[in-house]
Amino acid sequence: METLSERNGNHHVKILQVIHNFPLQGGAGAENYTMQICKALSREHELSVLTFGGRLFDGPYGQIGRRSGFAFPVFAFFSHPANFDDPEKEYWNPDFENAFRRLLDSVQPDVIHFQHVINLSISLVTTAVACGYPVYFTLHDFWTICPNIVLENWRGAPCDSWKNGHNCTRCMAIKYRAPRIWLKSKNFYNKRRQRMVDVLESCRAVLSPSKALMSICRDAGFDNVNLVHWPFGMDSKAISKKQSSQPLSLPIRFGYTGTISPQKGIEVMLKSFHALPALVRDKVRLYVYGGCGTDTRMLRSVSRWKCMYASESIQFMGRFDQECLPEILDELDVVICPSTWYENRPLSILESFAAGNPVIASRLGGMIELVEETGAGWVFKPANPESLSSIIEKLVSDPDQIRKIRDKIPEVLSINDEVKALQHLYVQTR
Question: Which of 188, 256, 280, 380 has its Cα between 20 and 30 A from that of 63?
């Protein structure tokens, strides 16, 4: 089989990246990561991006629009409003196929890399493979296994029955609030899982940023998928790394930097600081950076949290621009990742490491690999404010622990080094 290097003489490669959301400013981990990758790839290669543009009430299904403001072409698919009584359309929507084929005929990429296709369709991968394109897929979360994406059960706790799908019926019924979804969701789940397996088996490689996610995928039946452990990096040029000799702040400054969503465990963190003894609370500050977009439920939660917890020691800083992140991290001593879901490879932890900040994280999923296995911080019992509070109290009683941990923080892979590895993968994988 002819390789990309043979076709392109080891030089110019035309790459199409597919991502469910591609905003000019900000976004969650997958979007920020994809933006960094695209900017780096576009310096040497011809890059295009396909994303989801939203839902229109008129016009053809799969209508294609063009977004401005980017240094490379960004195409957006628009669709009709989702039919919430048909959950199958959320992951398998052949109505996009003709528009996607037209886009491929226009762009004619050498390689297609799917970062995420929620709101689009996993059938786009099938279409690309059928057209003869080399296809790669990155797993950013548990969407290929769990219809609710984060692998949490209906109580908001990490799901432990995803191998057999026993609880998926209840989760689906609660999410869609429709009796006929309850009746057919078991069949829906089995069909969905098998389609995901078949699609991922057709990819040249499926990249998993964490060993935890790889293990869950194999247990979920993805045995014949070419899973590749791919601990992605980040663009950290603007972030200055603290040294162990650098003094700590007094009070000690803890921070959260990321999106605010139900599975991020924000209230667990707030409760832990609020419950600290007064003498300890006077010696710490917690700065909560992040926004929740237009999610009305989370907006109400943030308003309630401000009424209950806002004080001199707990401050809500709101949404921040990515350009401000280096300055924010420089002013913090420790970053907290209190997620109540398994997580994969949180970009907020990588950003903290790049700044020389130790991390306190829930003992779950990919957070264990990054924090506990490297010794670059501390882990606490998930969804347990008391467990987190005990770590805070120990650090207040012996702040020198923070400076000593800085020496154990691993180097973060640069985005340029990752791009070189991606180029090699694109060329060599058959």
Answer: 188
Provide the residue type at 193 as one letter.
R
Place of tokens 């609660």: 174
Annotate 405-419 with b (16+ C-beta within 10 A) or e (fewer).
bbeebeebebbeebb
**Is there a contact between 8 and 110 (Cβ–Cβ < 8 Å)?**
yes
**Residue 131 region by backbone torsions, left for phi larger than 0, else alpha for psi between -120 and 50, else beta:** alpha
Q: Are 358 and 378 in contact (CB under 8 A)?
A: yes
Q: Is 20 helix (H, G, I), strand (E, B) or coil?
A: coil
Nearby residues of 378 by Cβ (< 8 Å), 6 or more positions away: 358, 359, 360, 361, 371, 391
CA neighbor of 422 nearest in space, from 24, 50, 6, 36: 36
Q: Write down the residue that tokens 């009070």 correspond to.
A: 251
How far is it, in rounded angstroms, from Cα 217 to Cα 225?
A: 9
- Find tokens 């923080």 and name the residue: 409
231, with CB counted inside 10 A (0-12, 13-18, 19+), is: middle
**Bridge partners of 416?**
none
% of residues, the chain, pLDDT over 70: 88
- Kindly state the helix (H) or strand (E) to which residue 282 belongs, with its residue range: none
| pTM, two decimal places | 0.88
Considering the segment(s) 4-233+414-428 as one domain, its CATH architecture is 3-Layer(aba) Sandwich (3.40)
User: So what's the pLDDT on residue 6?
Assistant: 47
229 strand-pairing partners: 208
CATH superfamily of 252-406: Glycogen Phosphorylase B; (3.40.50.2000)
Is residue 263 within 8 A of residue 340, CB to CB? The reply is yes
- The full DSSP string for 149-161 is SS-B-TTSSBPS-
- Cα-to-chain-centroid distance, residue 392: 27
Residues of the chain with CATH 3.40.50.2000: 4-233+414-428, 252-406
Tokens read off for 239:
């972030």
According to DSSP, the β-strands at 14-18 and 111-114 are: parallel
pLDDT 10s digits, 335-364? 999 999 999 999 899 999 999 999 999 999
